[in-house]
Write a structure and sequence with these properties.
There is one protein chain. With 179 residues, the protein is of the alpha+beta class. It folds into 2 domains: 3-103, Orthogonal Bundle (Peroxidase, domain 1); 106-177. It has helices at residues 3-18, 23-40, 42-49, 55-66, 72-83, 90-105, 120-134, 165-177; strands at residues 107-114, 137-144, 151-156, 159-164. Strands 2-1-3-4 form a 4-stranded mixed beta sheet. The model has no long low-confidence stretch (mean pLDDT 90).
């Protein structure tokens, strides 16, 4: 079974039971903490993905790191992952959990690349336009990329809206070279 399908199943198991209770919010906070910890510690990620470190050792490390900081249900979930040998997929499971949660809450994550930093009012204009275009609430992440020269490149899921000057120049170059 593909890693995506496995991560998806575990993420669904996390999100489905708690969807109607406050457990979903607790799981969200717990997974944010775990995700931040994994992202900040290369050693932890290597430990989780290592095939030579025993399950008991991985379980003990996770318990030492998180037992006092997360809900008991989250600790049971982490123990289940190590028991099943799926702890290496924890970052993928967490990522998929947040994707599913956003999907259920009607939130679209949009990344926008611009050539120069933009003002808050421009950011709000992007949010308003993209909200009406996507039909969902938009969580915007702006990244400055001088290589696009001007304009913007927005990514909404698998869709890319490229209104950059770099793209326009590339199109012009292609059309001139075909003549």
């Amino acid at each position: 079974m593909s890693e995506f399908r496995v991560a998806n199943r575990y993420a669904l198991a996390l999100i489905s039971p708690g969807e109607e209770t406050a457990e979903l919010e607790a799981a969200t906070r717990d997974l944010e903490l775990i995700d931040n910890t994994i992202r900040s510690s290369r050693e932890l990620l290597l430990l989780l993905r290592s095939p030579v470190i025993r399950v008991e050792r991985k379980d003990a490390v996770l318990a030492a790191l998180f037992e006092k900081h997360v809900a008991p249900s989250t600790m049971r979930f982490l123990s289940l992952l190590t028991e099943k040998g799926r702890e290496g997929l924890l970052p993928d499971i967490i990522k998929r959990f947040f994707e599913l949660k956003d999907e259920r809450e009607g939130i679209a994550n949009v990344s926008v690349r611009v050539a120069v930093p933009i003002a808050k009012q421009q950011e709000n204009a992007f949010i308003n336009k993209l909200t009406s275009w996507a039909g969902k609430h938009v969580r915007l992440r702006v990244e400055v990329d001088p290589s696009i020269i001007g304009g913007f490149v927005a990514r909404v899921g698998d869709t890319v809206l490229d209104a950059s000057i770099r793209h326009q120049l590339d199109l012009l170059e292609r059309s001139l070279s075909m003549s």
